């Protein structure tokens, strides 16, 4: 039987310049969708998929992330004293087991492939997951859990995949499909941020991966690719045609690009509308806004 995937890497070293000035002092991953930091969604998804060890690849200025995952005994004590049991449960739910989180610094911003490579010594010789917290996926079955289940069938390397409008494909890693089996596709090529006319398809890589240790070996010798950065896509593509193979997985769910302001706002609205305590007020307000803009036309 295939060994369970229990480790996940979270590359969180990015400067978050698109969200300046907020990211002057707040790591992007701590910015909140409603009342939960972006990173919490990624952690919850990883936990649901059976991940037990969480490896953060960070950089200077990210210490708020470490504090966020620390226990907060004084706050917990206060809430207990005041009988705020629901809040206490909510807070405790975000606590991580001692020793479950490791932080590794990426000293230079050399790209996503390099960030993952920085965690190589904590992975050793086993399959691991990578989650890009910017890609938030709302799904009945969390995306990584879907992938872990599909991976049990395929092995090799698996990347989350989604059809995007062809004119947007150049913002992504793009798959060249060998065989389309519905939710799973086998892959014969992968290109990071192709020029529009060179994109092999409009099936884009989304930030969820289950990778074999061979990808870390490939990263050992990887040179800079698109944008002058060491690309994870290239290191995965180097496994195509080997015994490991590469698969794309079309997940069920809605993906939000929280690396962009518009995506972040859309996710905020979607997650708020999914909440019993906010739905009525917010949808009334949204209707009002729509009616106002219609009236102005
Ligand atoms: C990264 C990956 C890219 C992938 C994308 C998904 O790019 O390099 O292959 O399609 O995430 O969000 P980035 O968005 O960091 O430029």
From TrEMBL:
EC number: 2.7.7.9
Cited Gene3D superfamilies: Spore Coat Polysaccharide Biosynthesis Protein SpsA, Chain A (3.90.550.10)
GO biological process: UDP-alpha-D-glucose metabolic process
SUPFAM superfamilies, A to Z: Nucleotide-diphospho-sugar transferases
Keywords: Nucleotidyltransferase, Transferase
Annotated catalysed reactions: alpha-D-glucose 1-phosphate + UTP + H(+) = UDP-alpha-D-glucose + diphosphate
Alphabetized GO MF terms: UTP:glucose-1-phosphate uridylyltransferase activity
Superkingdom in the source lineage: Bacteria
Keyword Translocase listed: no
Annotated Nucleotidyl transferase domain residues: 12-269
Matches recorded under Pfam families: NTP_transferase
InterPro entries named in the record: GalU_uridylyltTrfase_bac/arc, NTP_transferase_dom, Nucleotide-diphossugar_trans
Record-stated family: Belongs to the UDPGP type 2 family.
Protein's name in the database: UTP--glucose-1-phosphate uridylyltransferase
């Amino acid at each position: 039987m295939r060994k369970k995937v229990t480790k996940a890497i979270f590359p969180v070293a990015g400067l978050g310049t698109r969200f300046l000035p907020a990211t002057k002092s707040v790591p992007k991953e701590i910015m909140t969708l409603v009342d939960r930091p972006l990173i919490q969604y990624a952690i919850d998804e990883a936990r649901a998929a059976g991940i037990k060890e969480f490896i953060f690849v960070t950089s200077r200025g990210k210490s708020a992330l470490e504090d966020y995952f620390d226990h907060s005994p004084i706050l917990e004590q206060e809430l207990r004293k005041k009988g705020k049991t629901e809040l206490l449960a909510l807070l405790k739910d975000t606590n991580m087991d001692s020793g479950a989180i490791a932080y590794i610094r990426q000293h230079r911003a050399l790209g996503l492939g390099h960030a993952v490579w920085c965690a190589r010594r904590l992975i050793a010789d086993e399959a691991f997951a990578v989650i890009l917290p910017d890609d938030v996926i709302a799904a009945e079955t969390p995306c990584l859990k879907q992938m872990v289940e599909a991976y049990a069938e395929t092995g090799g390397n698996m990347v989350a995949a989604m059809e995007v409008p062809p004119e947007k494909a150049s913002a992504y890693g793009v798959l060249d499909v060998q065989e389309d089996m519905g939710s799973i596709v086998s892959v014969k090529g992968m290109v990071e941020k192709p020029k529009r006319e060179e994109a092999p398809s409009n099936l884009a890589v989304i930030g969820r991966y289950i990778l074999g240790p061979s990808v870390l070996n490939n990263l050992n010798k990887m040179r800079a690719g698109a944008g002058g950065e060491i690309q994870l896509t290239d290191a995965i593509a180097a496994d195509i045609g080997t015994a490991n193979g590469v698969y794309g997985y079309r997940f069920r769910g809605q993906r939000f690009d929280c690396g962009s302001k518009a995506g972040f706002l859309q996710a905020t609205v979607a997650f708020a509308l999914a909440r019993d305590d906010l739905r009525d007020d917010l949808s009334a307000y949204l209707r009002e806004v729509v009616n106002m803009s219609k009236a102005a036309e």
